[in-house]
Amino acid sequence: MGTWGVGIYQNDISADVKEDYIAKLKSGKSDEVALKEILSEYQEDMEDIDCKYDFYFGLADTLWKKGRLTEKIKTIALQLIEEDRISQRWQTERIRYERSKVLDKLKVQLEETMPEYKKIPVHKPYVLGWEEGDVYFFQIKEKIESYEKYLGWYALFYVNKIYLRDWNVNGVADEVADVYFFLTKDKPESIDVLRTSKRVCFHIGKTGNRYKMHIYESSRRNRPKDLTLLGKCDGIHYPLNNSSKGGHFCWSRVDIREILYGYENQLKLDKPF
Fold it and tell me: What's the whole-model pTM score?
């Protein structure tokens, strides 16, 4: 596990404990079950000569801020604060001094009145609203540096597969889609346009070219406002050298640029030697 500073969360364990505990609450588990599972899953870290500090400090801080700190965790954390001040893992006097200031702040916090109990909203499994075989399109409405000539063109994608994966919250399976993109200059009128549109190749590689993208979402707000269902296709023909790997697509400006970059990749592949 990595440590990159003296702060409470400047190490992997404290950061992971915080994220994992809150994720359990977001998945609908009770306070008691969430804490019990954390203590079980991090048993090895709790018993490690160095990792125990990061585990208990991250857990105690998180529980306190959410109004859930137990007396047992508080007592252990306060005891470990005094031990960590002289821990051999802090190798110089200067670093020990900086760490001690962080520990002072944590000690004062844990001994103060805990904030009111904060309700953690339960995350409902995210649903894309798409079906396998769907074909959608949207217009490129923003100038992308080095690709200005594609302003006004249309990007299409074919939904090849929809499956469940923990994406937004650990323990909650959200819908994720594998899609293939195409680009065309004229506005699509029917799925027949797939026959004339050029597919998008996101990466040209020696072991295969990457056409597939995984679309991960936590909200539909990031989708293009003009995203339109064109129709349903029974299937598309994939290139023989199509890599099984896929990239992540989240509707950012960088992702849209990747479509245009991938289109020009395909132009290179289609160009006769």
Answer: 0.72
